[in-house]
Backbone:
């Protein structure tokens, strides 16, 4: 019988993971305004994992406590995401240029570089922002240690994973129907939460669940690149509208569009397999022998 099913300390195990991720984020930002892109990315990933862990604790926290702690984590991650996006857009621009076998217009490259410098200055070089983040992490860790989860057993953890799976399944249905950037982003987030949760509990789950974790990871990666490209496209649109011509961007935009369609097609195919089970059937997989 899997450990998760008989483990009465499941809530404490997940809380310990939550605290580790918060501490990881704090350490990644210890250099303050000199934090590297890798450190910012690491802190952001740690906060995503922390939010995924917090979702596992939700059945034992109650709605008010959960929403309060989730809001703190979301607000802490937001400025890091802005810095990350400004760096990734430059990288995605270079990737599309290579695929299109052309150089992106100088105006676009210059604008992205300027935005990156401005963003880093606003988030990192203003010491108060980074210091405030590290202080927020310390302050968050204290109430996390006292979260009232003593009665949260393995069945509560399974219920939380089932909830994440259900939300992802619904996000897949909506994104297939609407096929909009916001809906695709929601699907990506839910797949990412599911991946982090299954990854966190990997040693407590049947081996058969590992394949679902890998699929969730792949869906999140594919849609992550797609979201970056959609954001890059949104930076181009005002420029083509202002000039009334998209000619300087023709090859670039065609390549970007083809890449997005390929990413989305593959993501939908894998997501279809990831979410093929009904939620109650998926929950049974987690606790099966």
Residues:
């Amino acid at each position: 019988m899997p450990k998760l099913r008989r483990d009465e300390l499941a809530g404490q195990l997940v809380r310990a993971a939550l605290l580790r991720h918060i501490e990881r984020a704090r350490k990644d930002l210890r250099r303050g305004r000199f934090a590297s892109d890798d450190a910012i990315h690491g802190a952001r990933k740690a906060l995503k994992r922390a939010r995924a862990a917090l979702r596992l604790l939700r059945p034992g926290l109650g709605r008010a406590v959960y929403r309060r702690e989730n809001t703190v984590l979301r607000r802490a991650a937001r400025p890091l995401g802005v810095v990350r996006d400004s760096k990734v857009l430059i990288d995605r621009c270079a990737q599309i240029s290579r695929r299109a076998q052309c150089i992106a217009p100088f105006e676009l490259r210059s604008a992205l570089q300027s935005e990156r410098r401005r963003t880093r200055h606003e988030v990192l070089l203003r010491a108060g922002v980074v210091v405030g983040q590290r202080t927020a992490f310390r302050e968050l860790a204290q109430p996390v240690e006292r979260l009232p989860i003593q009665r949260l057993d393995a069945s509560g953890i399974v219920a939380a994973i089932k909830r994440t799976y259900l939300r992802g399944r619904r996000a897949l249905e909506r994104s297939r129907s609407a096929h909009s950037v916001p809906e695709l982003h929601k699907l990506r987030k839910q797949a990412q939460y599911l991946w982090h949760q299954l990854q966190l509990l990997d040693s407590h789950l049947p081996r058969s669940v590992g394949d679902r974790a890998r699929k969730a990871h792949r869906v999140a990666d594919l849609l992550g690149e797609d979201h970056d490209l959609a954001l890059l496209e949104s930076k181009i649109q005002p420029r083509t509208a202002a000039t009334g011509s998209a000619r300087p961007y023709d090859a670039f935009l065609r390549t970007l569009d083809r890449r997005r369609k390929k990413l989305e097609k593959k993501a939908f195919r894998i997501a279809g397999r990831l979410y093929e089970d009904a939620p109650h059937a998926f929950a049974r997989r987690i606790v099966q022998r």
Observations:
- Residues 44 and 80 are 6 Å apart (CA to CA).
- The chain has eleven helices and no strands.
